[in-house]
Amino acid sequence: MSTTFTHRNLPRLLLQAREAVMAHTRPSLREHALSDQQWRVLRVLGEHGAVDTGRVAREAFILGPSLTGVLARMERDNLITRARDPADQRRTVVEATPHGMKLVKRLGTSIEAHYDWMEKSLGKAKLTQLYGLLDELIALEQPS
User: Fold this and answer.
1) How far is CA 41 from CA 55, 59, 70, 73, 106, in A?
2) What CATH code would you report for 10-139?
3) Backbone torsion region of residue 61, taken as left when φ is above 0, otherwise alpha when ψ lies between -120 and 50, otherwise beta
4) pTM (whole model) above 0.70
5) How far is it, in rounded angstroms, from Cα 70 to Cα 73?
6) Distance spanning both ends of the chain, measured CA to CA
7) How many angstroms from the chain centroid is the CA of residue 99?
8) What is the pLDDT of residues 59-108, one digit of tens each?
9) Residues in domain HTH marR-type (predicted)?
10) Residue 130, number of CB atoms within 10 A of its CB
């Protein structure tokens, strides 16, 4: 018995798109011994500077228990530092080390070059539309 679906499998398509884009990024990450999760953490810190672990978890899409291990490895590898927030001792603040920021800049350059290539290939209007549609989809699916 087969079930007929009217719509294409959107989660699968989104995963395929992610994997297609990451196929260009992963080799550079691996050259620097970084996992996808570690790169997402560094990207958040590169964009925002020192932030609390809750924000890192939200923006890098890493669940708390996994984030603890990721941050421990990154601290061991001198990519980040962790410290208690002086304003609220219950919070931990994460910041990229100079070595971590050097990687953000180095990898960011090649990643931005890939995004430039996508923009030239798709056209600026289509890439902007894609970003907008994804933002709308994310907002639509948020619990109210």
Assistant:
1) 10, 8, 9, 12, 15
2) 1.10.10.10
3) left
4) yes
5) 5
6) 37
7) 19
8) 999 998 899 999 999 999 999 999 998 888 889 999 999 999 999 999 99
9) 7-139
10) 13
